[in-house]
Amino acid sequence: MLSESCRIYFHSLANVIGTSLLISVVFLWSLVVLIPLLITYYYTALYFRVTYRELKRLDSILRSHLYAHFSETLCGLSTIRAYNVQDQFLRNNENFMDQENRAYFLMAATIRWLCVRLGIIASVLIYCASLLSVIQRFEIEPAIIGFVLSHAMSLPDDVIRCVRLFAEVEANMNSVERLVHYSDNLESEAALIIPENQPSLSWPAKGEITIENLTMQYGSENPTVLKDITVHIKASEKVGIVGRTGCGKSTLATSFFRFIEQTSGKVIIDGIDITTIGLKDLRTKITIIPQEPVLFNGTIRSNLDPFNEYDDATLWNALQTCLMADKIDQDYCLEPDEKALLPANLLNNSSNPLQTEINLYSLVKECGINFSHGQKQLIALARALLRKSKLIIMDEATANLDHKTDQLIQNIIREMFGKSTIITIAHRLRTVINYDRILVMCDGRIVEDDSPYVLLQNPKSTFREMCKSSNMI
Ligand SMILES: Nc1ncnc2c1ncn2[C@@H]1O[C@H](COP(=O)(O)OP(=O)(O)OP(=O)(O)O)[C@@H](O)[C@H]1O
């Protein structure tokens, strides 16, 4: 929109300057009127610009409220209907529309105000040019007079367009200013790849982690979240992190990905300090199964394997291992015409699970809304299985599964990721009770670090207290 506004603005400006020059060259006396008119024009435009800019800003803000409310309503349609509050949301929507229209109406009124004033100024100029043509009718050729007057007639429109578009260009430049701010002034992440410091393809081969005096905070104005953490995690160890909400468990887990940079200290994975390598090299080697698994609009297949690296049988195996296969089988049986779309070799192969009416090509809606939270976590687990990382972080990954499924998944994890290091954040203590080690966190520090058995034997242990309060012992 900005380029189009600029184009029309410069076009109108050239017309206004050209016509004014033409009139003053042909009728020298017109300068007597032209100069005061230009001054009046300048001040009127200035007055208009300030008001219009503010109104436009107001309109944008109110419009964004309207759009936000509209999209939130669309996302929460089922909840709104469930609570039978459609009328309230309709009223709110009308209210937001009314408010936005107020600013829009004022903008339209301001433009009308300008049109009237500029129209008068331009008409005075045309009047003078016409008057001078009559007075100087014997001195100037009729053709030239006709030429000047025909141009002068378009002056009111050009003058109005010129000022309006100038204000519009200026208002649209706000967006440019914001983009420039985002691109130049905001701190960006570290380099994705540092060519002179790339880890080998097999890194991390063991999954051994050493954390030395790690301190982290979210921005300099916020309190320190991780305080001087030192811990060594052996290769293939299964470590559970527990602690009260807000004690820094997720922050410790995400520190491996450098989502926020550490304030001080070191995280060393298989001998490499993670701050010395590029973010892409780091992040592609670690797998996270997050609290809020992300699914994309597409199919189950495209969600499991976005870069098309695995065949269907491998994907299906991963789903079956994560206990998702039955669910998909039930929910998404292939229709005959859908079957026709599948590659023939998959359907003819008797050992292929696709023969049992499984559909990896089933639809996954935006944000995976057609799956339950637990199912989304199982799909995320299947993704992790496919990647076969040496280091896997699970942030409450099985929190939304029932206890039995959680246990089954834990067994699967132990079996399938036997040679990987696993760090699991768990609210449910049963999830990590069979792990090799438990780290208990409190207020950004590790207060206990031992095997679950040893911690449970210790009557003063916080972990024991936590197990007691959740009726495990
Ligand atoms: N993006 C953020 N910006 C500022 N502070 C944050 C941010 N994320 C977390 N925090 C703060 O850091 C502290 C630790 O949060 P963190 O999510 O690591 O805790 P947690 O133990 O994982 O909690 P939970 O069990 O509820 O997930 C909290 O006080 C939280 O308010």
Automatic annotation (TrEMBL):
<keyword id="KW-1133">Transmembrane helix</keyword>
<dbReference type="InterPro" id="IPR027417">
    <property type="entry name" value="P-loop_NTPase"/>
</dbReference>
<dbReference type="InterPro" id="IPR050173">
    <property type="entry name" value="ABC_transporter_C-like"/>
</dbReference>
<dbReference type="GO" id="GO:0140359">
    <property type="term" value="F:ABC-type transporter activity"/>
</dbReference>
<dbReference type="GO" id="GO:0016887">
    <property type="term" value="F:ATP hydrolysis activity"/>
</dbReference>
<feature type="domain" description="ABC transmembrane type-1">
    <location>
        <begin position="1"/>
        <end position="171"/>
    </location>
</feature>
<dbReference type="Pfam" id="PF00005">
    <property type="entry name" value="ABC_tran"/>
</dbReference>
<keyword id="KW-0472">Membrane</keyword>
<dbReference type="InterPro" id="IPR003439">
    <property type="entry name" value="ABC_transporter-like_ATP-bd"/>
</dbReference>
<keyword id="KW-0813">Transport</keyword>
<dbReference type="InterPro" id="IPR011527">
    <property type="entry name" value="ABC1_TM_dom"/>
</dbReference>
<feature type="transmembrane region" description="Helical">
    <location>
        <begin position="104"/>
        <end position="127"/>
    </location>
</feature>
<dbReference type="InterPro" id="IPR003593">
    <property type="entry name" value="AAA+_ATPase"/>
</dbReference>
<dbReference type="GO" id="GO:0016020">
    <property type="term" value="C:membrane"/>
</dbReference>
<keyword id="KW-0067">ATP-binding</keyword>
<keyword id="KW-0812">Transmembrane</keyword>
<protein>
    <submittedName>
        <fullName>ABC transporter</fullName>
    </submittedName>
</protein>
<dbReference type="Pfam" id="PF00664">
    <property type="entry name" value="ABC_membrane"/>
</dbReference>
<dbReference type="InterPro" id="IPR036640">
    <property type="entry name" value="ABC1_TM_sf"/>
</dbReference>
<keyword id="KW-0547">Nucleotide-binding</keyword>
<comment type="similarity">
    <text>Belongs to the ABC transporter superfamily. ABCC family. Conjugate transporter (TC 3.A.1.208) subfamily.</text>
</comment>
<feature type="domain" description="ABC transporter">
    <location>
        <begin position="209"/>
        <end position="468"/>
    </location>
</feature>
<dbReference type="GO" id="GO:0005524">
    <property type="term" value="F:ATP binding"/>
</dbReference>
<feature type="transmembrane region" description="Helical">
    <location>
        <begin position="21"/>
        <end position="44"/>
    </location>
</feature>
<dbReference type="InterPro" id="IPR017871">
    <property type="entry name" value="ABC_transporter-like_CS"/>
</dbReference>
